[in-house]
TrEMBL record:
<dbReference type="InterPro" id="IPR035386">
    <property type="entry name" value="Arm-DNA-bind_5"/>
</dbReference>
<dbReference type="InterPro" id="IPR013762">
    <property type="entry name" value="Integrase-like_cat_sf"/>
</dbReference>
<protein>
    <submittedName>
        <fullName>Site-specific integrase</fullName>
    </submittedName>
</protein>
<dbReference type="InterPro" id="IPR010998">
    <property type="entry name" value="Integrase_recombinase_N"/>
</dbReference>
<dbReference type="Pfam" id="PF17293">
    <property type="entry name" value="Arm-DNA-bind_5"/>
</dbReference>
<dbReference type="Pfam" id="PF00589">
    <property type="entry name" value="Phage_integrase"/>
</dbReference>
<comment type="similarity">
    <text>Belongs to the 'phage' integrase family.</text>
</comment>
<dbReference type="InterPro" id="IPR050090">
    <property type="entry name" value="Tyrosine_recombinase_XerCD"/>
</dbReference>
<dbReference type="InterPro" id="IPR002104">
    <property type="entry name" value="Integrase_catalytic"/>
</dbReference>
<dbReference type="GO" id="GO:0015074">
    <property type="term" value="P:DNA integration"/>
</dbReference>
<dbReference type="GO" id="GO:0003677">
    <property type="term" value="F:DNA binding"/>
</dbReference>
<keyword id="KW-0238">DNA-binding</keyword>
<dbReference type="GO" id="GO:0006310">
    <property type="term" value="P:DNA recombination"/>
</dbReference>
<dbReference type="InterPro" id="IPR011010">
    <property type="entry name" value="DNA_brk_join_enz"/>
</dbReference>
<feature type="domain" description="Tyr recombinase">
    <location>
        <begin position="209"/>
        <end position="377"/>
    </location>
</feature>
<keyword id="KW-0233">DNA recombination</keyword>
Amino acid sequence: MTVLFWLRKNQMNKKGECPIWCTISIEQSKSEFSCKMTIDPIHWDQRNQRARGRLADYINTQIEQILAKVFDIKVIAQAQGKSVTPQLIKNEYQGKVVTKPTFLQMYAKCLERKTHINPISKKHYERRMKNIEVFLKLHKKELILPEEFTPDLLEELEHHLKSEHKVKSQEYLFRYLDSVREVLRFCHKKDIPVNRQTMEYEIKKGKTKTPVYLNQQQILALANFKSPAKHLMQTKDLALFQRYTGFAYIDLTTFDYENDTVEENGKRWIKKIRTKSGEVSLLPLFDEARTILEKYDYKLPVISNQKYNAYLGTIGEIIGLPFKLTSHILRKTAGALWLQEGIPYALVSTMLGHSSITTTQKHYVRVDLSALKAHFG
């Protein structure tokens, strides 16, 4: 922290005296206030930030007292575990009673600013906020301030998620706990006191999982699957459609043949905006996918996400998959098999509707329909 005393010369009074001001700086943040004293500029030594000549003793004594009080406020705030900001020191020095926002109020404000994220991601943030709110109410701390959210409370939240919500995934825990840190970082930027130890609390993200996807033999087993149950056969067709389009579940259920495909030189292309990323997925309407569309008169059956994944799990067990088959695995399968077939990374990324794809070999570059046409003919 640095404290600077200086003259505000643009507020010179009729006597030719300028008010003395104090500026407090911490990192990139600043706050300033009037010292309630004036002095003739010729009696001010800016290099030493002190008065000289007439009345020097009185003014310099007042400056020393201000300086001592400012540093006392800083030391006390640090001892209380608060995030020390110039605004906090200014408010304490001036004796201002500031109505502080609660942690949950700041979480809501932080969420309001996430206008760039898609609706699905926003629902995840809202669900995490609701569960954190339930946790705080259980501990009678729903009015807790950001500066009172301690590392110990963060550990209690982790235990609550594991015991009450039966959370076992470290990745899932990381997202919850990091949401708390994100809110605290947001508060810090707004000069709202936070517990710095909590804001800097290290959270284990968990090990990166090995991608799971179907190989060609497993795809063949899926294609050959037969059942007298109509819902399982519809599920199989939707699964194969995902394999040949790379659609996520939400894109599968919102696919509209008339609006989401275009024709170029006699060839049909899928051109659909992905719900999650907002990116456009561009890919040929492969014959296998067209055959499925024709079967349903170009209107795919709609199955709820929960039932769809349950039916996929049943099919996976019947055909002998060593893992539980899900909609997400089928999306990954499309990308993985396209890469194995020699389709360039950039094209696969465009086909899947990814905003980026990073590998050890190259970074994604957005391509257009002409590049896809050149590859697929």
